[in-house]
Model the fold of this input.
Amino acid sequence: MSKKIMNSKLYIAMLAVALPVVSQAGGVKYSDGDKYVKIGGRIQLQYKQVKPDAGASTDDLFFRRFRPFIEGSLHKNWKGKFQWDMGTAEGDNEIAIKDAYMQYKSESGIKVSVGNKMFPFSREQMTSSKKQQLIERTFVGDHNYGSPDRQTGLHLEKSGKTVSWAAALVEANIDPDNKKLDFDTAVNKNTDFNEGWMLGGRVEISLGKKAKFSQGDFKNDSKSSIGIGVFSWSNDDDNNTASGTRSPVDSVTGIEVSGAYRGNGVSVDAQYNTFDAETVDPGITNGIYKNGKTTLESMSVEGGYMVVPAEVELVFGYQTLDADNYAEAWNRASLGVNWFVHKHDIKVQLSYRMGENLDGVANNDADEIFLQTQYVF
Done:
């Protein structure tokens, strides 16, 4: 055996000792004291079928999410993370930046992050897509209907046993589609998105043991929490081009009240959101807006029961969305089953969703079937 090969094997052996490998939920971590690197990702392959009451059925098979990430640190109390997505809800896969931030954790436990990160609003939105009971989020966690999603700026947070809080000052963008109230991050915006600044925060109070941002009761251990979130967004007037049914948004304020319970094989989340929004043009009556204004209200109750502990879960959900210019409230009811091969790391989900009055149009109904496999590493 050559000296060069022997040296290579010795180096690999030394590296294996210096960097112990720790397998974690959502990543594999290689560490050397305070220095570490963690890599991971999620793969969600989804089949979706839509059956409208009027019109032909459609179906599609696509990667709903194909999302790798890398996280690492060279210095104590500091870390960086970046994550990107090559999947899509529409079936035309594209690359989008998700997490991309640097973070410092103080000795008091306060985390200070700069970059693109989840905005502290909406329990369901803050619950990772890989840890949801229903395959798709309901209205209260959907960035298309008021929940801010990831945004770029300054983020502060502190997690406690009883009280946890978070706050953020960010630049946030809105897709000026009159049918939606669609927040998007500044790093993935289109040219006609409305730009503006947003300030908000959230408080989570645990009633006994904390109910983490993960749905499903795997440990049969009673936990519950309630949360309140608020934010305000204002257009900075940099980009207010109107076009057809795309009207610039002038301001948005949002309020969230939510709660969660885990125990005895039962997992339940309930949430109510309300958003007051105004368009730059006060005469707009289209989509969700009436005379340039709307109050967009959404409510959701979703839950499940482990019929086979930590393995098979029956799930249900009901959600509703209403706006000033809707003829009728848009309602959805869901039923489904989840098979957890290895909890949320490897699972198969089936959901059947019945929709009434889509986009607030009376008798515009459609049923949807979702089948999704998930692998997380």
